[in-house]
Every structure is written in structure tokens, then in C-alpha cells.
Description:
The chain is of the alpha/beta class. The protein has helices at about 35-50, 125, 130-145, 145-165, 170-215, 235-250, 250-255, 275-280, 285-305, 320-335, 350-355; strands spanning about 5-10, 15-20, 25-30, 70-75, 80-90, 95-100, 100-105, 115, 220-225, 265-270, 275, 310-315, 340-345, 360-365, 365-375. Helix 5 (about 170-215) crosses helix 6 (about 235-250).
Amino acid sequence: MFYLEGLQIKGFRNYQSEEIKFNPYLNILIGENAQGKTNLLESIFYLSVTRSFRTARDQELIGWNSNYFLLKGIFISEEFKNIVKVGYQKQGPVKTTINDNPVNRYEHMQQYPVISFSPDDLQIIKEGPSIRRRFINLEASRLSYSYLQNLKNYQRVLLQRNKILKDTFNRVQLDHIIEPWDRSLIEIGTDLIIERLKIIENLEKEACYFFEKMTSSRESLSLTYSSNVGIDEEINIMKENFYRDLLAKREQEIKRGSTLLGPHLDDIKIWINGYDSRRYSSQGQKRTAALALKMAEVSLFYERNNVLPIILLDDVFSEFDDERKMNLLEFLRYNGGQCFITSAVSQENLLQKLNREYKTIFIARGSIVDETIRPAY
Ligand SMILES: Nc1ncnc2c1ncn2[C@@H]1O[C@H](COP(=O)(O)OP(=O)(O)O)[C@@H](O)[C@H]1O
Ligand SMILES: [Mg+2]
């Protein structure tokens, strides 16, 4: 098992200086609003991947009364016991060491996997297609290096092709210049679509499993890829479809100065009980679906690397009834690694039914004010 044994946190957000030991299985962080629960999850996330899930500006993470922050954690697995330090000083670079040896901040990310889920992740269900495309691009890039390469090439082709559409005024000339870019768009674009279809199939399997557990099999989830390119089992037919429709759009493309066909315009539809979740689902259903996608990531990560990531769940209980909360805790027990769950109100009643060892950490004004360990009975 892989887990974070303890954490020292200095000058990070509203934490001045704290030292905390964690339970290898389950940690419940309790505190009123704005006391530092999310900040603590953020510090664990930062220690693992050297970036925040809330901001791209490291500067914001430094406590208002400090001019640096320092995080020190001990990660334990069957193979290692590593002391990881990550520090950041105003204007300076982020410094990372493992057992006191300096490492590149990007290098060590794969080694300490962590998955976080926060209320913001609901956007993946609620918002427009671009956020779901970003999700699938991130997920696919993590799973396959060739996808990442394809994606970069595709974006380059798209940029060039759009430039040609915008800048070439002579039509005969345009048709001539754009031809090789059409070919590349179709070749790479088709590859991307095919890889996405595969990944969605895998994600769906895992997400459905989670969704069924959460809803005690009363509700169902499905994912479909919705492409503006005619999908076909025959790759050559798909490319022909792509080419035909691309030609049909040429006038419009010239008018708009941009590429109007391809995977950069696709979407993933998320269905609950056969209805489009974006339109027809309740808050709790949306949250369950968004969480299902994250938990699917956990499972796929495990399949690939044989390690269960650390799971950070921010405020996940607030829209679930007791049955869903219990189903979630049961799921995590058998399918999750070390978990951290924040909540504004005590979950003691539920947790005691779980019959599993866990630690409760009480947080107020950026300090740990109390902690209790409850063993399984
Ligand atoms: N860089 C910072 N320095 C000091 N305090 C901060 C910083 N950033 C946020 N805070 C404070 O942290 C608190 C919010 O903590 P947070 O962990 O989000 O609360 P919650 O317990 O509700 O999850 C707020 O009071 C906010 O003012
Ligand atoms: Mg919070």
C-alpha cells in the first residue's frame, strides 16, 4: 500500500506551522467554513504533484504573514520510505527534494499519485463541451504518450490550417495550399477520435461500476462520444467521411477563418438513466456522475501502475443522502487507497457503521485543534 504517513506544513495558506500524522487508510478532516480544510488537501496535492488544484499562481499559496512555504511529507510504500520536501519562496523557483536529493519538480510527479475531487469538478457535467474535451485530453495523455504527441501535432495543424483560411484571399491558391493540411487534419484527427473512443469505453466500464455501487444499482450511467466526424468501424470510411464533410464546409470555413470539422469540436455525453445529465439530472446525480469519472481514473491508474493513488475528497458528502455516503465509504474501502475527506459536520454515525479504522482531524483557523483515532471494532 502507498500512503502519506505525515506532513509538516509551514507558511502555506492559513497554516503557519503544523505537524500532522495521518492514518494509512482513512482521514476525516472536520472544521467549520473557511478554517483550512481545503487548504490542507491542497497542501497534500501540492506535495505530490507540485501544483495546486485551485490556482496556477504559486504566490497565492504563501501565507499572508510569510514569505515562503515549505511542505515536508513522508510517503511510504512497499518499496520506499521517502521524505519529500517542496518549498517555494516569493519569486523563486519551486524547490523539491527527495531524501534531501534535489529533483526536478516534474520528474517526481508520477511517483506520488494523487487524485482530488472538489465541488468545482461538477463543471465537467454542467459546463460546455470544451471542459469535457480537456478532461479526455488530459486523461488520454496520461494513459498514452502517443496520444499526447498526436494531440500536439493536431493542434499545430489546426493553427496552420486556420491561418491559411484567414490569410489566403485567392481561392484557387487556397485550395492548393490547404490540401496537405486537410490530409494531416484528417489523418491525425481520425487517430485522436479512435483513441478517445477506446478510452471512453474503458472509463465507462469503471465509472458505471462506481455509479451502480453508489446508487445501490437503482440508477445507471453511460458515456458516449459525440463526434462531428462520421464515425465508422472502417477507418478508411471514417477518413472519407471526414474529407467529404470538410470539403462541404469550405465556404463556411473561409468566411469564419477557422476549421469547422474535427475532434477539437467533439463532446462526451454523460447519460444518467438514459437522459442527458447536463440537462436533466439533480445536483446529487451530477455530483455522483462527476465523482464516477474521477473514481474511474483511480481504477485505470491502478490497472496501469498497480498502485492505488491517494484520494482527496473535498466536501463530497454535502449533497449525498446517508445511503450514498455509506456506499461511497464502502467503495473507497475496497477500491481506494489512502483517503482524505473533508466535511463541515461530523460524520461519526456513518463512520462507526463502516467498521474500519480511521482518524478524525479537527481544524480551526489553520491549526489542528484535536485528533482521534477510532479502531475497527
Ligand atoms: N495565502 C493565504 N494566506 C493566509 N490565509 C489564506 C490564504 N489563502 C486563503 N487563506 C484563508 O484560508 C481560509 C479558507 O480556507 P479553506 O481551506 O478554503 O476553508 P475550508 O475549511 O472551508 O475548506 C480563508 O479564511 C482564507 O482567508
Ligand atoms: Mg473548503
